[in-house]
Amino acid sequence: MPTPANDAPLEVACPQCSKPVVWSPESAYRPFCSKRCQLLDLGAWAEESHRISGESAMDEADLDALLAQADRDAPLS
C-alpha cells in the first residue's frame, strides 16, 4: 500500500529562480516555473553564458584543414 509521501507530487526547483515547480504534465514549462524563466535560460545559452564544460571537439582551423583535405580527396566527375 502506498504511503502518503509516495502520493505527493514531485517538486523540483526552477533552474532560473529556484521557485518550487510541481513535476507534472500540467506544468507546461517544467522544469521552469514560467515562460519568462524558460526564455531567460534559453537566452543565456544563446549568449553562451551557459555552456557544457570541456574542450571543443574541433576548432575552426582543424575544421578548415579537414574540409580542404576532403576537397583534395574528392573524385573528379
UniProtKB/TrEMBL annotation:
What does this protein's record comment on cofactor binding? Binds 1 zinc ion.
| Chain sites annotated for binding Zn(2+) | C14, C17, C33, C37
The molecular function terms of the Gene Ontology recorded here are: DNA topoisomerase type II (double strand cut, ATP-hydrolyzing) inhibitor activity; zinc ion binding
The alphabetized UniProt keywords are:
Metal-binding, Zinc
Check the record and name the InterPro entries matching this protein: DNA_gyrase_inhibitor_YacG, Znf_NHR/GATA
Among the GO biological process terms of this entry, one is:
regulation of DNA-templated transcription
Query: Which cofactor is recorded for it?
Result: Zn(2+)
Gene3D superfamilies in the record: Erythroid Transcription Factor GATA-1, subunit A
Q: Which function does this protein serve?
A: Inhibits all the catalytic activities of DNA gyrase by preventing its interaction with DNA. Acts by binding directly to the C-terminal domain of GyrB, which probably disrupts DNA binding by the gyrase.
Record family assignment: Belongs to the DNA gyrase inhibitor YacG family.
Q: How does it assemble?
A: Interacts with GyrB.
Write down what this protein is called. Answer: DNA gyrase inhibitor YacG
Whose protein is this, by species? Vreelandella aquamarina
